[in-house]
Design brief:
7-stranded mixed beta sheet, Rossmann fold, 278 residues, alpha/beta, two-stranded antiparallel ribbon
Length: 278
């Protein structure tokens, strides 16, 4: 059976890559990085580091899927096919403060991984073979595990200790369980550089701590986030009546005074589901 690592180039999925090569986890056939087109500069820099490391250490093959560009689609107020607004979970006021339905993960992450996998296998329009998709969600985030929506997929969460099938039944693989802090410790102990938390630079699922870090440490990325925030404000032509904002305060991102103590504020909201920030 084929086995793929879903690589977000964040802490957990990157550690999964190293562990797979070093024999701590099973060696997977290859890893696929679904680049949304909105990845942070530091994430893309780490991807280049991984490419070089893979070549020097004969690691599992690495592939990037970047057929779509969420940043450009948001600025153009369209989706990847140009037909509708690319929905990210922006904040808005609609009978009380709420968020738009999230479509970005399925369209710009999962669909891209599937397309790249089809190319790698060179199977044309044939059905996918049953495949294990290894996902780097840590034990402390186990509530984010999910049942695969496609029958050919088996979602494997090594750090949570579960393998989940499309019919909902699961299998225990408990010997790999690790929390995020344990994974960071493992990376440091083995002298691997710690990746940036992986998410789009303009993702609304960021705490004030994350926004301030982006502003202070990656001002070019923050400037792009501010531009996206301004561009999505009025989407009335797309059927969205209330203004949209990237920040939960419903204020323009440039004007927000960030409270650094709000680290991890959005954890209970699930961040960007299975594939975004791992």
């Amino acid at each position: 059976m084929n086995s793929i690592g879903s690589l977000g180039v964040g802490v957990q999925s990157t550690a999964m890559y190293y562990m797979s090569l070093l024999g701590i986890l099973p060696k997977l056939d290859f890893f696929i990085f679904s680049d949304t087109g909105g990845e942070k500069t530091k994430t893309l820099e780490y991807w280049e580091f991984l490419i070089n490391w893979q070549k020097e250490n004969n690691g599992s093959p690495l592939y990037k899927a970047n057929y779509k560009n969420l940043e450009k689609d948001l600025l153009n107020q369209s989706n990847s096919s140009g037909n509708r607004f690319a929905s990210i979970p922006a904040f808005t006021m609609n009978e009380g403060k709420g968020m738009l339905r999230r479509q970005c993960t399925g369209e710009y992450k999962i669909a891209q991984l599937n397309k790249k996998y089809r190319e790698i296998l060179d199977i044309g329009n044939k059905h996918f073979p049953q495949t294990e998709i290894w996902i780097g969600i840590s034990f402390d985030e186990r509530g984010r595990m999910s049942v695969p929506q496609e029958k050919w997929k088996i979602n494997v969460y090594p750090f949570c200790g579960y393998k989940i099938y499309s019919d909902g039944h699961n299998e225990r693989i408990s010997k790999y369980i690790k929390t995020r802090s344990e994974i960071i410790y493992w990376l440091k102990e083995n002298k691997f550089p710690i990746p940036e938390k992986s998410s789009c630079k303009f993702c609304p699922f960021q705490s004030d701590y994350d926004w301030k870090r982006l502003k202070d440490n990656s001002p070019d990325d923050f400037e792009i986030a501010c531009t996206v925030d301004e561009k999505i404000r009025n989407c009335s032509k797309r059927g969205i009546k209330s203004p949209l904002y990237l920040h939960r305060s419903l204020m323009p991102l440039r004007e927000v005074q960030f409270y650094e103590k709000q680290k991890g504020f959005f954890d209970d909201l699930g961040n960007c589901t299975d594939y975004c920030d791992v």
